[in-house]
């Protein structure tokens, strides 16, 4: 499967890769530039590889609450719930946004299985009876992220966009169609996801791309979002998520309603592990920029023996250091400790508090714009 | 393990436990202390706390540890760990000033 906008991205010089059977825009020639677009102005990224569904309001809450870990029933009109889809063993399958859009609910999944498998999971929970519409092949999902992202959405959709709180949804008219705008994002800068019907995808891409260029930004691929998410300490299902899978070890308890009546997919397994107590947890680690040994899969040593594993890594262009996440025994999972990587006498690594960067967007108050 | 590392862990563990207990109580959070990962985002993303909750967090740091988080320093409130770092820095600063 390819994005509806493949031709446009290819013409702009994009390099592609495959994720679980879907072709995605991996990046362009210079990842430092792509990072700088987001940290200093604005970047436009194609997230159309995500699975998208529309569920009618009448059936949405019961249907979605039967398998998602979060509490959809408590998601107010106009708001977005960030949660995940577990498997039967309570391990993460998809990182999900659920938007309560009044007449309907919208489900967006970034999964570590193919679209066909997510479709099958939803079918097994009664998607047909709930009237679920599969939007994955009929919509594009464009992400605007960056310090100046708010300027671009304001110029395209109007001043009232600035009043949207984080994790909210609103509908805007565009070229005779409805575009869903989600105030979301996982970079720690301002972020907006725009979901549009294929009929206006080219026009929307063209308008956003032009506005992004005017703002001094540019196009981004999904690879740079791995670094952006890590710098902002946002959960990344494509990195630490696929390595670890257990939401409790991953620190995703905040995405779970442990008291949800009737439970959810895999809830028994999650509750059992919670009752038994955590023995390992994921924390931030950092090493020198030239530390080639610091990469996902590497062992971290303490007192001459391996005690942890790196499960995500990147080069942070903001910090000019290697940045990562590692799974430690809970008794050692504290910020501010020194270890070595690969061997007992290997290069030094240090556990750190996350998030390690100060996003420029923290200095902007949209309500005052 | 070196004494320095042991001391770092013990000191941090004590502050984290006290802070989480106070935070859960003040904000009536539906989580146990173990559920609250120290790196989870507090405002907006993650726990999704609002500006009133942020005030409670500031009061929590002040009442429990005698550390005042300046109004303009919202960056400290990014996660429990960044707050704990600030508390430890302030305690050290006050200690060395005596």
- How many strands, which pairing sense, and closed or not: the largest β-sheet of chain A? 6 strands, mixed
Distance between the termini of chain B: 30 Å
- Count of runs of 4 or more consecutive helical residues of chain B: 3
Strand content of chain B: under 5%
Tell me about this structure.
The complex is a heterodimer of chains A (369) and B (98). Chain A is of the alpha+beta class. Helices cover 24% and strands 33% of the residues of chain A. Chain A has 9 helices and 19 strands. In chain A, a hairpin with a 2-residue loop joins strand 10 and strand 11. The longest helix of chain A has 14 residues, at 201-214. Chain B has 98 residues and is mainly alpha-helical. Chain B has a single domain (3-97), classed as ACP-like (Non-ribosomal Peptide Synthetase Peptidyl Carrier Protein, Chain A). Classes of the chains: A alpha+beta (369), B mainly alpha (98).
Outline of this structure?
Chain A has helices at 6-11, 31-40, 57-65, 115-124, 149-157, 201-214, 222-232, 237-244, 267-276; strands at 15-19, 22-27, 43-46, 51-56, 80-86, 92-100, 104-111, 133-134, 139-145, 168-174, 177-183, 191-197, 218-220, 280-287, 299-302, 305-316, 321-329, 338-341, 348-352. Chain A is α+β, with helices and mostly antiparallel strands.
